[in-house]
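Need CBY1 protein's 3D structure for a figure. Predict it.
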Amino acid sequence: MPLFGNTFSPKKTPPRKCASLSNLHLLDRSTREIELGLEYGTPTMNLAGQSLKFENGQWVAESGSFTGDRREMQRLRKRNQQLEEENNLLRLKVDILLDMLSETTAESHLMEKELEELKNHSRRRK
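Structure prediction for CBY1 protein:
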């Protein structure tokens, strides 16, 4: 019996005879998808009575599912464009106001610093 040696030496397991007991690996791809449920199809959803499907990275209305007319779509697109323009204008106004606030704050700090220096200077003279 070794004093500092390893006394535990497990037996090696014999190699497997077959890689898998399942015969699914023998099936072609389409049969496997059907058997294993891997055929998902395109994602679809129903939103406000309109059926949409996801194709090529965008949600597209399914044919015949849109119940509104062309004028309504044009009106909505025009309104959307107006809101985007208004949003851009408001963002510009916010940027201008922030710049004005920064400038006013910097001027205020400079004036406070000058005032403090004048107070210190007048105290030294006394």
